[in-house]
Amino acid sequence: MIQNLKFNEKGLVPAIVQDADNGEVLMLGYMNEESLRRTLSSGEVWFYSRSRKELWHKGETSGNRLMVTELWQDCDRDTILAKARPLGPVCHTGNRTCFFEQLTKGDLK
Amino acid sequence: MIQNLKFNEKGLVPAIVQDADNGEVLMLGYMNEESLRRTLSSGEVWFYSRSRKELWHKGETSGNRLMVTELWQDCDRDTILAKARPLGPVCHTGNRTCFFEQLTKGDLK
């Protein structure tokens, strides 16, 4: 099944992380095949860091790991949705979610 | 503000669509600057279709448009989260969400 996923030209798929308990969208990261395998086998979210160009066990340093409850692929098999319980703030800014800046019509200018 | 978004080398950012009422993650699409402008000004979700290489007013044909309630950018300014009320099934398969296929440890084989 994993082989059927459509990784992009860089070998990655975007992976949305949603809080399994309150439904809040927490972040979007990228997974390569190996990080997806590790996520499935360990039950914790692993990404591939595009900046560091290496596997990234989310929360390994901070302790704020993401405990997966469910993993889904979309109809096109080119996006992952991970429902997870975060052990702490997901964002490096200390926010619970990375989506804390709202865009409004005023931003059109 | 829009100019500060980090569009990728193709001029796109991924945009997560979440049901504004029940929190369900519905789909992930891609926006270029113009589709983001149209989304903000019209209050309905516009994407950029990577396959058709054109602006894509989601639901224009099917009628299943996405009425935006809130738009957020993430901490890195390279991902959008659109909270929206869908006027019908979001997925081209007729499913309410594009994420209807679960991945489990069995998919590791």
Task: Describe, in plain words, how this protein is organized in 3D.
Two copies of one chain form a homodimer. Chain A is mainly beta and 109 residues long. Chain A is 9% helix and 37% strand. The longest helix of chain A has 10 residues, at 33-42. The mean pLDDT of chain A is 96. In chain A, a hairpin with a 4-residue loop joins strand 3 (46-49) and strand 4. Chain A has one helix and seven strands. Chain A binds chain B through residues 1-2, 14, 16, 18, 22-25, 27-28, 36-37, 40-41, 70-77, 79-81, 91-93, 95, 98-108, and chain B through 1-2, 14, 16, 18, 22-25, 27-28, 36-37, 40-41, 70-77, 79-81, 91-93, 95, 98-108. Strand 7 of chain A pairs antiparallel with strand 5 of chain B, so a sheet runs across the interface.
Question: Any key phrases for this structure?
Answer:
homodimer; mainly beta; four-stranded mixed beta sheet; 1 helix
In a few lines, what is going on in this structure?
2 copies of one chain form a homodimer. Chain A is mainly beta.
- Sheet with the most strands, sense and barrel status of chain A: 4 strands, mixed
Residue stretches of chain A low in confidence (pLDDT < 50, at least 5 long) are none
Strand content of chain A: 35-45%
Number of helices of chain A: 1
Integer-rounded radius of gyration of chain A: 14 Å
Spatial sequence of strands, sheet with the most strands of chain A: 2-1-6-5
Q: State the oligomer.
A: homodimer
Order of helices and strands of chain A: EEHEEEEE
On the 0-100 scale, what is the average pLDDT of chain A? Answer: 96
Biggest interface found:
A-B, 41 and 41 residues
Distance between the termini of chain A: 45 Å
